[in-house]
Description:
By secondary structure, the protein is α/β, with parallel strands linked by helices.
Amino acid sequence: MWDNATIPYTIHKNLQQDIIERIENAIEHYHKHTFFRLQKRQGESHYLRFKPSKKDKNYTSDGCGGYDSKAVTIWLTEGASFSTIVHEIGHAIGLDHEQQRSDRDKYVEVIEENISPGMKGNFKIPKRSITFGEYDYRSFMHYGAYTKAKPWHYQWRKKPNILRTVIIDSEWFVFALNSSTGSVEIRKMKYSGNKWIIGRGSL
């Protein structure tokens, strides 16, 4: 875990300047909406590092929250967006996907046949899933309707793999940037002074 909700970080020199700027903006987003503080590494052994992706995807390695590794790595492609970086930082601090909450079936329908091969794990509900707060369609940890969907007929067309089952308003849910109240609450419990660890809760 991250002591005192403080996350030392480094940015690889080979990342493009526009990606670096998005990283900095994502960090500011966390500073504004949560109590986490990301600060440049000063020799700490446990830290977060941003590096150019070696694959054609953005992802976080070494486990959520760095349970088994001193260095947690966020791998970013040249086209990594601000929202993607916010999402990956969420994984680095220990957040799972919103659509993996144990109560998700009350709010969304996951259509497995439309999910790209090898991606079903991102929709699977963990056996030990602890949830706090209301289900948040706008959480930065929630996939959009077509995220990880496989192509259909034409490469630029896909079928949705997540559908709302509860209509809150007329707005179709997309990948949004809000830090949900539930995310903040569970992190406060996880990083409180008594150091009570509740495990990899899904937010």
